[in-house]
Amino acid sequence: MPVTVEVVGSETKRCTVADDATYADLIRTAGYPPQETTILVDGTPVPGDATVDTDRVRLLRLIQGG
Which of 6, 15, 20, 24 could be 48's S-S partner, Cβ–Cβ 3.0 to 4.6 Å? Predict the structure, then answer.
């Protein structure tokens, strides 16, 4: 399933995940660690273990830099 991932303050990516993928799987596919990010669907955070059920999300990086 194709999903558009808008990385807040950065870029927009087009990712493809399995139909039964979780939001944590989507985060990894986008190239980020799930423990450092959260996914927003319609402005609301969703749990990483929930199944992806939308074609557009916003990815908010909670930790940046180093």
Answer: 24
Output the pTM of the full model: 0.92
Least Cα distance to 62 among 23, 15, 21, 9 occurs for: 9
- Give, in degrees to the nearest 5, the angle at Cα 20 between 8 and 33: 40
With tokens 């959260």, the residue in question is 38
| Phi-psi sector, 5: left (phi>0), alpha (psi -120 to 50), beta | beta
How far is it, in rounded angstroms, from Cα 23 to Cα 40?
Answer: 10
Q: State pLDDT tens for residues 12-35.
A: 999 999 999 999 999 999 999 999
